[in-house]
Amino acid sequence: MTPSAGRIPGDLLNRLISGESVDLPDDPAVANGLAAVGLAGLAFTLGSPGPGRERLRADAVGVALLTELRMEALDGARDVLADAGIPCVVLRGAALVEAELYPTSEVGRAARPMSDLDLLIPRERGAEAVRALERAGAVSSVPLQADAFDWLDAHTVVFGHGRAAVTVDLHVRVSRGGLRFGTPGLEAEMLAPGTRLVDGAAHLVHLAEHLLRHLR
User: Fold this and answer.
1) 188 with 182: CB under 8 angstroms?
2) Which of 20, 31, 99, 199 shows the greatest Cβ crowding within 10 Å of its Cβ?
3) DSSP letter string over 60-99?
4) Radius of gyration for the chain, computed over Cα atoms and rounded to the nearest angstrom
5) How far is Cα 39 from Cα 113, in angstroms, rounded to an integer?
6) Largest Cα–Cα separation, the chain
């Protein structure tokens, strides 16, 4: 447990993880702890009205605004790729938000903060996708080599600057390194014509691999 998480009562943390409504204590240490671990928006969304909830309002508003900014960028990136005839599907946090798996509140979609966007694209069209997004105003985090997608699993582009910047990670494989729990051809299955959101089972495999990669 991190020091920040240590300020959050265990029963409160368990209820938030379970998606249950919560009574939030009017305690600045708890509010700061929730904000530090990225749970302020979720706690505000699930919290009962009261002073403890109001302590989190500003953080929740900030998360909601950044979520809308990133979801607008997602729509823009998909439009660019669609105009170029390049299929893509959204992964991870933005996929969960778009599927409306998280509750909302009067401030908007604040329950699930996102640091970036993740899109799956066909490996053979990776360079073309990067160039299309660059023409639309994105900047690559590192220069793209001609054969980059022969050996890379992902490439990052950024739209905008400062706090308004939106990072888009373009993936060509849904598992990385030695973690290969996905079935053969899973990427092609995810990118089937007409697919906008990844099948739940396939996405669960990808999320599990992503979590394990960060834990190992």
Assistant:
1) no
2) 31
3) HHHHHHHHHHHHHHHHHHHHHHHHTT---EEEHHHHHHHT
4) 19
5) 8
6) 56
Residue with tokens 């793209």, as numbered in its chain: 144
Residue 172 is encoded by which pair of tokens? 């060509």
Per-residue pLDDT of the chain (216 residues; tens, 9 = 90+): 444 555 888 899 999 989 999 999 999 999 999 999 999 999 999 999 999 999 999 999 999 999 999 999 999 999 999 999 999 989 888 988 988 889 999 999 999 998 899 999 999 999 999 999 999 999 999 998 878 888 888 899 999 988 889 999 999 887 654 444 444 556 666 666 665 555 665 666 666 666 656 555
Q: How many CB atoms lie within 10 A of CB 143?
A: 6
CA distance 210 to 124: 23
What the block records as the tokens of 146 is 């001609």
Determine the residue type at 33. G
CA angle 113/117/122 to nearest 5° reads: 150
160 φψ region: left (φ > 0), alpha (ψ -120 to 50), beta (else) = left
Q: In what order do the strands lie in the sheet with 166-171?
A: 89-91, 117-120, 166-171, 154-159, 139-140
- Structure pTM? 0.81
The distance from CA 28 to its chain's CA centroid, rounded to whole angstroms, is 28
Residue 22 DSSP class: B
Which residue in this structure is represented by tokens 């265990």?
10
